[in-house]
């Protein structure tokens, strides 16, 4: 399975592609899409869509794992992140990718073992888990890789739990 992790952002969107099975995975590629904050927001969304569309064409992922929306004191920031997430979800749906959404605390707990981990801790664990010489930079890309890694650990968990419950009821 090949997973595209997305850390949504309207100025810097992090992405990371990881390949593997279960708890064994390896790095394919990672990076960011940077948008000019002076551009109209619709133009920034179009740039994000276009660059991630090209990335999907190049890396051919099976799934999109994306950070869930979180509460923000700044409503404007939360709305923009929601729109970026919506564009990514639309693109994934159009391409027939499996879509999974993970809460920020779950991602950190899965990768670092602590739901309130700092960005540098996430980056260091991503480095260790993927066998890299250095933590991925910038942190947006490291976060995207952490989201993809989280997907490998949680993929199909609900299906397995439902199957276990059905089996137990028989």
Secondary structure: number of strands: 5
Rg, Cα atoms, Å? 16 Å
Gross geometry:
globular
Low-confidence stretches: none
| Name given to the CATH architecture | 2-Layer Sandwich
Instruction: Write the element-wise H/E pattern from the N-terminal end onward.
Output: EEEHEHEHHHH
The structure class reads alpha/beta
As a percent range, the share of strand residues is 15-25%
The CATH topology, please?
Nucleotidyltransferase, domain 5
Range of helix content: 40-55%
Largest sheet geometry:
5 strands, mixed
CATH superfamily: Ribonuclease H-like superfamily/Ribonuclease H
Keywords summarizing the entry:
170 residues, alpha/beta, Nucleotidyltransferase, domain 5, five-stranded mixed sheet, 6 helices, 5 strands, globular
Note the topology.
Blueprint: E1 2-7, E2 12-21, E3 24-34, H1 41-59, E4 63-67, H2 75-94, E5 98-102, H3 104-111, H4 119-130, H5 139-154, H6 157-169
Parallel strand pairs: 1-4, 4-5
Antiparallel strand pairs: 1-2, 2-3
Overview of the molecule:
With 170 residues, the chain is an alpha/beta fold. It contains six helices and five strands, in the order βββαβαβαααα. It has one domain (2-169): 2-Layer Sandwich (Nucleotidyltransferase, domain 5). It has helices spanning 41-59, 75-94, 104-111, 119-130, 139-154, 157-169, and strands at residues 2-7, 12-21, 24-34, 63-67, 98-102. Strands 3-2-1-4-5 form a five-stranded mixed beta sheet.
């Amino acid at each position: 399975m090949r997973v595209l992790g997305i850390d949504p952002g309207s100025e810097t969107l992090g992405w990371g592609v990881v390949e593997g099975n279960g708890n064994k995975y390896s790095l394919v590629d990672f990076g960011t899409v940077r948008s000019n904050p002076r551009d109209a927001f619709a133009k920034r969304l179009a740039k994000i869509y276009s660059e991630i569309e090209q990335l999907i064409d190049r890396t051919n992922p099976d799934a999109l794992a994306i950070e869930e929306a979180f509460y923000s004191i700044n409503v404007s920031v939360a709305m923009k992140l929601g729109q970026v997430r919506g564009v990514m979800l639309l693109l994934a749906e159009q391409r027939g990718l499996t879509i999974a959404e993970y809460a920020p605390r779950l991602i950190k707990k899965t990768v670092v073992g602590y739901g309130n981990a700092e960005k540098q801790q996430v980056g260091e664990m991503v480095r260790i888990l993927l066998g890299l010489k250095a933590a991925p930079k910038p942190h947006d890309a490291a976060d995207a890789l952490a989201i993809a890694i989280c997907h490998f650990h949680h993929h199909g968990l609900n299906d397995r739990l439902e199957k276990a419950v059905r089996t137990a009821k028989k």
